[in-house]
Amino acid sequence: MLKLTDVTVCYGSFTAIKQVNIEVEKGEIVVLLGANGAGKSTTFRSISGISKLAQGEIHFEELAIGGRTPDKNVQAGIVQCAEGRKLFPQMTVQENLKMGAYVHRKKKMEIKSSLENVYHLFPILKEKLHDEAGSLSGGQQQMLAIGRALMSKPKLLMLDEPSVGLAPLIVEQMFQVIEEINREGITVLLAEQNANAALSIADKGYVFENGEIVVEGTAKELLSNDEVRKAYIGA
Ligand code: ATP
Fold first, then answer.
1. Per-residue pLDDT at 83
2. What CATH number does residue 74 fall under?
3. 59 assigned to some structural domain
4. How many A from CA of 192 to the centre of ligand 1?
5. What is the pTM assigned to this prediction?
6. 3 state SS of 172
7. Any idea what DSSP says for residue 195?
8. FRET pair for 157, CA 20 to 30 Å: which of 40, 48, 184, 215?
């Protein structure tokens, strides 16, 4: 479904990611692991079309999308839920969700059924639909950010560190919801520092160090890899 071939992205003279090769099959959950600054978000930005490629190519559903703009990518089903949530804090929960459906704004019935789907996944958002997004707890804001991304009807959902800053119980719920979203047929690419939790739901993973992929494998292989365990799982 998604294939990155030798993707290199630079910020000025600084090379942020170098010759990155990633393959994601339809229906998979794939995790990108790595410390802060290792290159996970830049990889996401290259896929969504925000960062230009200095080298390499990206294919989505067999089409080369390397030079495509972010809006075209969203229309094609590539949707990113950015780190830090980036909600509209003074708008209500429902207004934020409807903003996520902007590309489908003419399809009123579809928007209604997408809203129902988001409320089914996150019942707390239904309870708070008229509250300002800025008044929600951290976990609820993360749920709203994911819900808003779902409103664009993604085929590929990219989640950038959805568990960051959340209490352990909420993190657990978050990963359960990601699995549920995946079971509904959405392919998931997940950047995480919480390697244990991410690998427990993932099919496979890639480990980034200084902008390069240094280890890749199935989730099972990565969970039993001593170096990965030492660096990212703490055991
Ligand atoms: P984090 O979780 O901290 O976002 P990351 O693995 O997602 O980490 P990136 O954000 O992709 O890493 O950053 C990769 C490298 O590129 C880092 O060295 C970072 O400082 C640098 N970088 C990121 N964005 C920019 C930018 N807009 N201009 C210059 N350098 C940048």
1. 65
2. 3.40.50.300
3. no
4. 14
5. 0.92
6. helix
7. H
8. 215
